[in-house]
Amino acid sequence: VAELRDLRKVYDLGEVKVEALRGVSLTFEEGDYVAIMGSSGSGKSTLLNVLGCLDRPSSGQYLLGDIDVATVDDDTLSEIRGRRIGFIFQSYNLIQQLTVVENIEVPLLYQEGTSPETRERCIELAKMVGLGARLDHRPNQLSGGQQQRVAIARSLVNDPFIILADEATGNLDSKTSEEIMELLARLNEEGKTIIMVTHEEDIAEHAKRIIRMKDGLVLEDSINSSP
Amino acid sequence: VAELRDLRKVYDLGEVKVEALRGVSLTFEEGDYVAIMGSSGSGKSTLLNVLGCLDRPSSGQYLLGDIDVATVDDDTLSEIRGRRIGFIFQSYNLIQQLTVVENIEVPLLYQEGTSPETRERCIELAKMVGLGARLDHRPNQLSGGQQQRVAIARSLVNDPFIILADEATGNLDSKTSEEIMELLARLNEEGKTIIMVTHEEDIAEHAKRIIRMKDGLVLEDSINSSP
Ligand SMILES: Nc1ncnc2c1ncn2[C@@H]1O[C@H](COP(=O)(O)OP(=O)(O)OP(=O)(O)O)[C@@H](O)[C@H]1O
Ligand SMILES: Nc1ncnc2c1ncn2[C@@H]1O[C@H](COP(=O)(O)OP(=O)(O)OP(=O)(O)O)[C@@H](O)[C@H]1O
Ligand SMILES: [Mg+2]
Ligand SMILES: [Mg+2]
Q: Is pLDDT of A71 > 90?
């Protein structure tokens, strides 16, 4: 469902170039459940941003379905992203002026638009992540873990094929983390592809496959023998 | 060194009141090393904000040293905070327009001011958290874990008595987390009081005392028998 071929990403800051990805080749099948681990700065978020069509590679190919993402213009890329991909950002990226429900609705504004039915769906998603009593709160009135859960709910509103999660339980206690992991497991059983970045081994244990990165390269890519 | 007596914090949002702290009484001695755990939304960050003089309680007392924080005006509070407390925020609160070194310097601007010596100190702190190659980067050019490390370095620049850390390793891989935990252990041996919020048992294990919170109350407060 997604294939990266010798992918490279260089951030050019003038006098300094940062090689965030230095030749990554990976294939993801439909229904995969992958954990990506690696040290801070090893390129995990950059990899996820390329997979999520939020950033274009400096060189190499990214085939999503049978589309070579490099050949596609920005509007089409935006369309693909909105329809197929749900993204949980490492820093949530919530909109401060919008409430919990409105934040969850945001991806719909770019796609099908909103309606009483879609608003109901957003409320359901908020309840599913335990925020039923916080629907009208704004991000600065929420705890860190509550904000993270809004980001999780938002990533699901478009019923995406692929869910990209960057440290999605980094601010959640073990019980709430477990609830989120059960949710992801259910979504994977329904056929969704899940690619999550995590630094916690217990979280990675839920995945079927574990990829370890170091300095912009894939160090290891193996089946999880004990999920 | 710090004492909370029947502390309460209510967020009043008009029609809804959120009782974030519902009567917390705790005493912290100099040189304490405390981990605070509890579910998402249980009041941990709110407690830390009150301890860090970033927020005033709705009722109850907070005695810092022998000063009743409620009797003190905002400027004095600001002064106490700047001199004695180092804070690592759950969402870092870095300034986007400033570089790594400039961000670490920020607390000095409110206290002693900056100089070539203080700039050297900030560079040393950046190196200590592994960001020696990123001194002129801005936050949006850093990975999540790198941003977290800038926040950690900044919390130390005023050589504070008390370090308040809110999920300070939430975005760090295990090796980098270990390095930060060793740094905190050294600071504690030097006599600094460390109060850290964490949801990870392995991180809490480094502390000498573990406090567990639930729904705005302290559920448990015990010596860590296996640090
Ligand atoms: N500014 C605010 N206005 C209204 N409610 C707030 C505000 N800040 C926090 N709250 C609420 O107070 C409660 C406690 O929040 P707090 O941030 O202390 O939780 P926490 O234990 O740090 O959670 P987490 O582990 O998710 O970071 C939460 O239910 C939250 O929704
Ligand atoms: N916009 C940018 N400009 C310049 N350098 C960048 C930019 N974004 C990331 N980098 C650099 O690219 C490298 C990889 O960053 P990335 O965010 O992918 O790391 P990561 O593995 O997600 O780290 P973490 O675990 O700390 O979140 C880092 O060294 C970082 O400093
Ligand atoms: Mg990252
Ligand atoms: Mg918190």
A: no
